[in-house]
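Colleagues,

For the teaching module next term, I've prepared a clean inverse folding example: a structure given as tokens, and then the sequence designed for it. I'd like students to try predicting residues themselves before seeing the answer, so please don't circulate the second half yet.
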């Protein structure tokens, strides 16, 4: 706070009630996440019907499922860096347009190779949007509620999957599998103008760029301009590249453990989300029951991330997340025993989503908070990129195991081991990096300072 009693940029955002502009930012970022969840999962919902229509082997879809995640790896890393260079808002707009166009073109392909190409381009857009919406949400949320808001925003991804399951169960039998992709393209195209008009650029990003005029306009729109002193928090300029900085000043162990956890977590998630509909269909369930089993995972995810997120507000978040993964291991193992019982399958998949994927969404928030403003989009982008290696491996390994004749029990034993590995990595994060239990989310934000990061220097821009 300045001598006049006015506040710096961070303090203007972190103090006072959450206003309409912040709610709009979080809501529209959540809508992007919902569309992400819908479009990512749409191919798994459509796959059983495409297999029947094209007379191809189910195992051939391993490469189709993985293609979106290969594209996501490139998109997350590339647009994470771009977001730190040109801004969060334009990077989100470009990526939403990209995956909308690719999704629209998907029904026109006629081969597995064509599907792989279309899903790869879709993945570049979907993966690229993630770092931008995480950064925008975290940078417009007050510090003490930042992780909670990021977690709630990211609940849009499983919510999109739930919506996709419900819609698919009605659309596919009535209009065929292409209708799912037409819907998945139209909605993001309608969202683009709303995002462009109503979502401002990140104030913290503008402060790093020294763009006082733009900050003035945004704070006036928020009704907080009179509270701003003109001081902007600007991180010191490093000669190292942003990626290299993820492993300097005490961040190395935390970055490595976050990456390991993301890898195993996404391997598990997309193994489940990609193959549950196909396996359920092979076990004799209807297409409606098969896609609703995935929606059950996503419904559990939403409930789990809220519950686990609340616990992480009060205790060491890494330990809480670790416990979630560990408990989820048993639920994943049990999926292989459900057989053709629809109620049992729904109950077990709900529990797996609650514990495992719910923990994963809280991990996203932990990653966003671990890195400072100048590295946040790069840090979350590279975390998402590394996690995409897991999301590539999960569908591909599932296809290979199915082609080799592995049983449902063996398949889900493999998935359960992935959940356990993610839990062990988070236990190490809690014990070695975040040793002091945080009483609230804001305390996690100070973790980098405790680990040796330099604090930003306050400068006044006239």
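(Answer key — instructors only)
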């Amino acid at each position: 706070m300045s001598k006049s009693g006015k506040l710096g940029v961070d303090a203007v955002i972190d103090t006072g009630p959450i206003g309409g502009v912040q709610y709009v930012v979080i809501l529209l970022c959540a809508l992007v996440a919902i569309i992400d969840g819908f479009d990512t999962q749409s191919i798994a919902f459509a796959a059983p019907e495409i297999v029947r229509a094209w007379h191809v082997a189910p195992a051939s879809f391993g490469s189709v499922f993985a293609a979106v995640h290969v594209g996501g790896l490139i998109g997350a890393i590339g647009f994470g860096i771009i977001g730190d260079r040109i801004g969060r808002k334009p990077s989100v707009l470009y990526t939403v347009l990209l995956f909308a166009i690719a999704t629209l073109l998907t029904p026109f392909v006629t081969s597995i190779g064509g599907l792989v190409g279309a899903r790869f381009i879709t993945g570049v857009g979907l993966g690229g949007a993630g770092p931008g919406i995480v950064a925008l949400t975290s940078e417009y949320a007050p510090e003490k509620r930042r992780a909670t808001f990021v977690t709630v925003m990211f609940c849009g991804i499983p919510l999109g999957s739930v919506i996709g399951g419900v819609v698919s169960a009605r659309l596919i039998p009535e209009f065929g599998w292409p209708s799912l992709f037409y819907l998945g393209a139209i909605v993001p195209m309608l969202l683009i103008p709303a995002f462009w008009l109503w979502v401002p650029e990140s104030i913290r990003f503008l402060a790093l760029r020294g763009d006082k005029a733009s900050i003035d306009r945004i704070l006036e729109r928020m009704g907080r301009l009179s509270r701003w002193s003109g001081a902007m928090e600007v991180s010191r300029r490093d000669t190292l590249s942003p990626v290299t900085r993820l492993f300097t000043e005490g961040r190395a162990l935390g970055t490595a453990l976050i990456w390991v956890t993301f890898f195993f977590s996404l391997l598990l998630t997309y193994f489940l989300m990609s193959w549950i509909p196909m396996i359920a269909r092979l076990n004799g369930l209807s297409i409606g029951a098969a896609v609703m089993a995935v929606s059950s995972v996503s419904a559990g995810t939403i409930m789990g991330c809220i519950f686990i997120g609340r616990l992480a507000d009060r205790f060491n978040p890494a330990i809480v997340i670790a416990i979630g993964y560990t408990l989820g291991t048993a639920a994943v193992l049990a999926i292989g025993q459900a057989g053709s019982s629809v109620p049992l399958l729904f109950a077990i998949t709900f529990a797996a989503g609650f514990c495992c994927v719910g923990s994963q969404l809280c991990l996203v928030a932990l990653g966003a908070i671990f890195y400072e403003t100048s590295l946040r989009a790069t840090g979350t982008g590279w975390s998402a990129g590394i996690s995409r290696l897991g999301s590539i491996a999960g569908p591909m390994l599932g296809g290979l195991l199915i082609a080799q004749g592995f049983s449902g029990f063996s398949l889900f034993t493999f998935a359960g081991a992935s959940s356990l590995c993610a839990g062990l990595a988070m236990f190490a994060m809690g014990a070695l990096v975040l040793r002091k239990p945080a009483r609230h989310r804001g305390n996690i934000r100070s973790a980098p300072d405790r680990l040796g990061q330099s604090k930003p220097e306050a400068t006044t821009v006239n």
